[in-house]
Amino acid sequence: IGKAAKSMGFEVIDLRNSPFHYVSPKDELVLKLHQAYIKYTGDDKSPLITIGGGTYARMLKKAVAFGASFPGQVDLAHQPDEYLIIDDMLKAIAIYAESIVLLAGKRD
Predict the structure, then answer these.
(1) How many Cβ atoms sit within 10 Å of the Cβ of residue 7?
(2) What is the DSSP string of 18-34?
(3) Cβ neighbours, 10 Å, residue 64
């Protein structure tokens, strides 16, 4: 891009100052979150989803964005006419609760 821009009299300057953020899918954190997801969805086939946008996860050294989006759903998050399906929200709440239990390492 820089070469093409220069050939047309422009200069490309990288103004980003956010460090690269990556947590391995094999990390214990990700594995536990995935385990909670599988428990409440039965879905152990769908690949883990990663996004390129900045999220709250960047604020911590080892964190991931973990949301309530399920395979096959239209992504309406932060869009006009955003909505959610109540059954999906309840499933997400169960997954979040199980995730907390797994990450805390205790269960009664």
Answers:
(1) 8
(2) PPP----TTSHHHHHHH
(3) 19
Q: Does the residue 4 lie in any domain? A: no
Work out how many domains the chain is built from and give that number.
1
User: CA-CA distance, 59 to 13, in Å (whole number)?
Assistant: 25
This prediction has a pTM of: 0.74
**9, part of any domain:** no
Classified as helix, coil or strand, 7 is: helix
Domain membership of residue 47 (yes or no) is yes
What is the residue type of 99?
Answer: S
- CB 25 within 8 Å of CB 48: yes
Residue with tokens 């047309």: 8
> What parts of the chain have a pLDDT lower than 50?
none
Q: Which amino acid is at 38?
A: I
Report yes or no on 25 lying in a domain: yes
Q: How far is CA 59 from the centre of its chain?
A: 14
